[in-house]
Specification:
The protein has helices at about 1-10, 15-35, 50-70, 70-75, 80-95, 115-130, 140-160, 165-170, 175-180, 185-205, 205-225, 230-255, 260-270, 280-290, 300-305, 315-350, 355-380, 395-415; strands at about 95-100, 100-110, 110-115. The protein has 18 helices and three strands. The relative contact order is 0.14. The chain has a three-stranded antiparallel beta sheet, covered by helices on one side.
Length: about 425
């Protein structure tokens, strides 16, 4: 009886409702994005929207099973999940199916494929939470910090070999977990500084950028010249920044691939290329803009209906929302995501177990990064890196992996009073 009460009354049903709302929104938008008059039924298994219905059913079953499991069982299996996904990431490099230039999929037969990178996000959040919640682990210490980075870095490296840059970059979001657990904010500041330097060195002359940095550092040294330690730190930082700025052109021209450079150029306004690499983003912006305030109506999006936007049911699904639901619908969807992330953070903060809290922040970080980048690339403010919109984009691996992420947190939260 107590277990039944725990199951029915302790689950955060507000989060479950948001989950179902986003899944249904995704299902209907996929139906609209790839609608086939020969298969009008939204549950027709011969279509992507019919398959998405199957994925939703499977995900709900997976979520229900998770809620019935013992929380300690999930914690104990974290290393197995992590090692298992690493093996899958290695396997996909050998027998993987290439889609869109990435060797990221394993064929399961019957038109279904598995993308190990999606499940690696879940397993990495689990194992990172288990490690950081261990005794005498402090992120502020070099050893603990290095091990945490290795836990995050190994799947990143394997995914980069596919090469799937989008999924690789998602793991960077887990730095916010480390920050919550005691990592110095200076690491975040330094990270944003180097991003700013990278962009500046592309847009302007490296010598001009260095000149500005030298001027700023000189001014600070002049004001605090009596602080010898600060002066030494600033001079060391200046040397690092100068070397980095001078190396940006080499990185940009020799390390990045041509299509990656073009996407960055388009976002920064260096190139337009509306008929080439910039076609997707341009058509997406046209679709979203044409929706105006209230949208064109369900199944009435012309940009969507006539396939002007490639990948309109996966990476660019948000343009379907914008065109058919308009500004009001777009704000509603973004609002749901914002509420979900804030709700997850609230759940994380009320945990008694460090493992549950850390895991909760991992879930919030991954979902927030996906939403920010996916929506950002459809409206042209970030480069196109090809990551799905959580719970809405078409795809079984994506939907099931996000369901695992969310429902494991819901299970941990439902038992929070009994776990320390």
């Amino acid at each position: 009886m107590n277990n039944q009460r725990s199951f029915f009354f302790n689950v955060d049903w507000v989060t479950v409702f948001i989950y179902f709302a986003l899944c249904v929104i995704g299902w209907f938008n996929i139906h609209s994005a790839v609608f086939d008059e020969r298969h009008p039924s939204i549950i027709d298994g011969a279509t992507n929207y019919g398959k998405q219905f199957t994925f939703i059913i499977v995900s709900v079953i997976v979520g229900g099973i998770i809620l019935l499991l013992e929380s300690r069982f999930i914690t104990a299996l974290a290393p197995i999940f992590y090692v298992g996904t690493l093996l899958l990431l290695l396997l996909v490099l050998v027998i993987g199916h290439r889609v869109g230039g990435n060797m990221a999929w394993i064929n399961l037969g019957g038109g279904f494929r598995l993308q190990p990178a999606e499940f690696a996000k879940f397993s990495t959040c689990l194992i990172l939470a288990r490690y950081l919640s261990g005794p005498n682990i402090k992120v502020s210490e070099i050893k603990s910090f290095a091990i945490a980075l290795a836990i995050i870095g190994v799947p990143m490296f394997l995914i980069l070999l596919q090469p799937d840059m989008g999924s690789t970059l998602v793991f960077i979001s887990l730095v916010f977990v480390l920050y919550r657990e005691g990592l110095s904010p200076y690491f975040l500041i330094i990270g944003f500084l180097f991003i700013a330097l990278f962009v500046s060195a592309i847009l302007f002359s490296p010598l001009a950028v260095i000149g500005v940095i030298v001027a700023i550092v000189a001014l600070i040294i002049l004001l605090f010249r009596r602080n010898k330690r600060l002066v030494t730190t600033l001079l060391a930082g200046l040397a690092i920044c100068v070397v980095f700025v001078l190396s940006v052109k080499f990185i940009y021209n020799s390390v990045l691939k041509p299509h990656q450079k073009v996407r960055i150029d388009i976002v920064l306004g260096i190139k337009s290329d509306l008929k080439g690499k910039g076609y997707n983003v341009n058509q997406s912006k046209i679709a979203i803009g044409s929706g105006k305030l209230w949208g064109k109506g369900y199944l009435h999006g012309t940009q969507t209906k006539y396939s002007f936007v490639p990948e309109q049911s996966t990476d660019f699904i948000f343009c379907t929302v914008g065109e058919e639901w308009g500004f009001a619908g777009s704000v509603t969807v973004i609002g749901l995501y914002l509420f979900l992330v804030l709700r997850i953070i609230m759940l994380a903060e009320r945990q008694r177990s460090p493992f549950s809290r850390i895991y909760g922040y991992g879930v919030a970080s991954v979902i927030f990064f996906h939403v920010m980048i996916n929506v950002g690339m459809t409206i042209g403010i970030v480069p196109v890196i090809g990551i799905p919109l959580p719970f809405i984009s078409y795809g079984g691996s994506s939907l099931i992996s996000f369901t695992l992420l969310l429902f494991v947190l819901l299970k941990l939260d439902s038992n929070r009073m009994g776990i320390v």
